[in-house]
Amino acid sequence: FLTPHPTSHLRCQKCLADLIPTSSIISKGFTGRHGRAYLVSPPPLSTFMAGGNGAETACCAQGDIPNTVTHEARPRQLVTGAHTVSDISCRRCESVLGWKYVDAAEDAQKYKVGKFILETKRIVKGAEWDAGVGELETRMEGDEGDGEFDSQDEEECEDLFSAIWTPQLARRRRKERAFDR
């Protein structure tokens, strides 16, 4: 679980295991095997707590993403050149989520070493709504409010990019914002 700050984070699309805070996203302009992908940096271990009880946990090795398994490193020819990468999968459901950059042949690509690719089709964005309790931003049914995409709303742009935007989700968020005022 994330620290007590209300924040959004990425989860496994299949089993909803928490992976990483969205603040760890370095770039949204990468491509994975199945389309768009995020380049992310692993968070410090202190970002995560065991069971929400305040005690830090060694949920992963230093430099890895929590709740994932890093597989054997292999050379792979990518669009940006030759790299050595390790596939990463969800610790809970074993879905392949992306890969970790272990080495890069070209000096210009070395900045990626130690960072991860998370494929947007393999993850979903979640948020902390109550102190320490994660709740998936689900698609809600309803007909109140305007269901058109608002390009000026940062959350809606992020949802559209993540392929989870729906008119129902937009209406629900707008209703929650009005209720909070």
UniProtKB/TrEMBL annotation:
It holds the Pfam family Yippee-Mis18. The keyword Metal-binding applies. One of its GO terms (molecular function) is metal ion binding. Keywords: Metal-binding, Zinc. It comes from the Eukaryota. Belongs to the yippee family. This is Yippee-domain-containing protein. It comes from Decorospora gaudefroyi.
